[in-house]
Structure formats: C-alpha cells, structure tokens
Amino acid sequence: MINSNCIDALSHLDVMLAQESTLKFFKYFKNTNACGINKAWRNAMITWIQQVQKTLLLSPDTVWIAMSYFDRYLCSGKGKSTHVLKDKLEFQLAAVTAFYTAVKIHEPVVLGVDVLVMLCRGIHTEEDIINMEYDILTALEWRVSCPTGMDFARSICELIREDDNLPSYIADSILGSCEQHMDNAVADINFWCCRPSVLGISCVVSALAASDVLTLEESQAIWVRLSTLCNFDLSSVDIAAAQQYLMSQSSQCESDIISQVAKQQQPVPNTSADMSYNVEVGSLSPISVVQSARTA
C-alpha cells in the first residue's frame, strides 16, 4: 500500500525530473584545449575542494552541488564560460567560486571571501571571486536548486524506507553506499554529461547489487517494487550502462586501497596533538593541488 510518505517521494521525483529536463549536459573537454586544460585539471580542483570540505567538516553534498554549478556553468556557453575553458587561472577561479557559492547557500557555516583568498594564497582577489560568482549565477539564470544525482538517490531510498516488509536500516545501508558511489562518480569523466536522474538511479542499483545486508532475491524484489512505483524507466540502457561502470570503478577502488595498505611497511609516526588543526594554507591551495594535473 502506498502511504503519504511514498506519495511525497514520488511527487518530489516528478518535480526533479521536470527541473532536469530544462538542463543540458555534455562533455566540454571533448576537444583538446590548446592551453592544456583537460579532465586532469577538473579532477585536481575536485581534490582540492574535497580537501577543504573535509578539513572544515562540511557536508559531501556541498562538493556535489559545487561541481553541479561548475559543470552547468561550463556547459552554458554564457558569460565568460567559454573563456574559462581557455585560461587555467580562470578555470581554477570558477571551480573555487562554485564551491564558495555552494557553501554560502547550503551550509550553516560561513566561508568568507577573505578566507577563500587566503586558501588560494592570494592568487585570486576578493573582487575576482565576487565577479566570477555573479558570472556563474547569471549564466545559470540564478537556478541554484537544481537536483543532483544524490537528490534522486535519496528520494528513491525514501521509497525503500517506506516498504513495510523491510527494516529501516536497509534504506540507511543503501543510502550510505549511494554516497560512496557519488564520491567516485563526481570526479569521473564518464558522468559529466550524465543526467542527475540517471546517476542517482545507477547509484541505487549499484548499492542494491553490492549490498551485504540483502539477499539477491530481496534486492530483486526491491527493484521490482521501485520499477512499479516510479514514473520513469528504471531499466533504460543509460542506467544499465552507468550502473555497470559504477560497479567496475568501485571494485577497482577497493583493489587500489588493498594494494596501498599492503605496501605500507613502516608504522605511522606519532604526530602532535594539534596536527589535525595545524594545516598549512599551502597544502590546501588549489595551486599546490593542481601541480599533479600538470604531469597528467
């Protein structure tokens, strides 16, 4: 039986699909850039943003939202977005500003422009950031509440949560797995032009397939119920391809982690009690993070 919570979740999915239908997505790095800006530069900026997010104890959602702003801006063709793809400092500035805007809108804490300038080691001024923010917002037509893949995943997990035959921890487990898949997907070139709904659904499918708290039969039963409830095609070719790729990348990440741990032969040295607080500004600078991109 469909209760009011299920109806709300389904209505939310319909609203997000309507919002998504007005957006355009494509791989803006499909042509080689003469100045060398490529996917490695985007990945370097994501690495920096994630470092700052974790250091400041911000939500991972803020990273996903920031990259949504950034990618939509570069796909818009409006304002300075075309020039940004041709200038490394402007590209870097746009990514930093997208993160600043996401924090300002979605976080309870304040990340001041002056702090951001310090983190950038003065490479960008307060005026640079303010002007870039205006350019991004006008290019996006001030639409800062468009759904991310994780928004779709959460609404679908809410449908799982409302299944009377399943304990609530099942939905929590699936949602946690979806967040891990989103972390992997945000830096992956294969998902730049992916609609948020496709990414979100793919994360749920991958989480169900890899679940260690559900049997195969239970996962299949959940999927059948979702397919019946939802008003969009849960078995599309795009979703199947994205889900398969997510699973392969997740397995590769696990193998890489195991290999890295196995190679560690020296014990971790003791650090001072305030080491977690005493982070050098230079280590968080996008300039220092981008160094790795130059050799990619």
Automatic annotation (TrEMBL):
<comment type="similarity">
    <text>Belongs to the cyclin family.</text>
</comment>
<dbReference type="GO" id="GO:0051301">
    <property type="term" value="P:cell division"/>
</dbReference>
<dbReference type="InterPro" id="IPR036915">
    <property type="entry name" value="Cyclin-like_sf"/>
</dbReference>
<dbReference type="Pfam" id="PF00134">
    <property type="entry name" value="Cyclin_N"/>
</dbReference>
<feature type="domain" description="Cyclin-like">
    <location>
        <begin position="47"/>
        <end position="138"/>
    </location>
</feature>
<dbReference type="InterPro" id="IPR013763">
    <property type="entry name" value="Cyclin-like_dom"/>
</dbReference>
<dbReference type="InterPro" id="IPR048258">
    <property type="entry name" value="Cyclins_cyclin-box"/>
</dbReference>
<dbReference type="InterPro" id="IPR039361">
    <property type="entry name" value="Cyclin"/>
</dbReference>
<keyword id="KW-0131">Cell cycle</keyword>
<protein>
    <recommendedName>
        <fullName>Cyclin-like domain-containing protein</fullName>
    </recommendedName>
</protein>
<keyword id="KW-0195">Cyclin</keyword>
<dbReference type="InterPro" id="IPR006671">
    <property type="entry name" value="Cyclin_N"/>
</dbReference>
<keyword id="KW-0132">Cell division</keyword>
